[in-house]
Amino acid sequence: MLRETLRVRHYSLRTEQQYVNWVRRFLRFHHHRHPREMGAAEVSSFLTHLAVEGQVSASTQNQALSALLFLYRDVLMLNLPWLDEVVRARPSRHLPVVLTRQEVAALLAQADGLYALQLRLLYGTGMRLMECMRLRVKDIDFGRGEILVRDGKGAKDRVTMLPQSLAAPLQAHLQRRRAIHEADLQAGMADVFLPDALARKYPHAGQEWGWQYVFVTTGYVRDPLRPTTAAPSG
Predict the structure, then answer these.
(1) ∠ at Cα 232 (143, 157), nearest 5°?
(2) What does the pLDDT look like over 171-225, one tens digit per residue?
(3) Closest among 55, 64, 61, 65 to 91, alpha carbons compared
(4) I need a surface site. Which of 121, 123, 151, 187 has the fewest CB within 10 A?
């Protein structure tokens, strides 16, 4: 029920995995008692254990609390007064460490090949790591010098600049990537995940070049949301 409820509310796969993990850890900590049999004391003791024994950060502790609140409120549909009384950890307030241009250049110089291209994209576009890894071919507009970042933080789309210095290396990478796609098509392994049930509306869109991921793994993986389907290449 937990996974189904998360998917109905369109939570990201990463959030789903984290929430499921935290609920499992909570149940193991309390020897697999049913959540309905537990309350504020058990939730607080689990969070205290994470902070004292596990020495987790405030953000990690709050993520665990959010998972448990989701379990009680949205899955078990329990409107319990003590849920609002559980205190969240106070996040630390530290100034970010900012690298100088010289330090960034030295860092980028240590990478080569595909890793260098990915690092330069992250630095030059402001994309987050997973936004870069989920980038699709159709979302790069070389003519406009833009990249459309879809489903970013807060489930929002945004447009970012494609640095001119990265246009040629990225086009060269896509030529190599196109060859991989053609081989995947021949092997019948070119399907990629499509969001919002587009796979049902456009059954063959997952094999089209534009929907392919710019960066792919070295092997085939299965779509975790559709474990019985053929393995996609991205």
Answers:
(1) 40
(2) 999 999 999 999 999 998 888 888 877 878 888 888 999 999 999 988 888 776 6
(3) 61
(4) 187
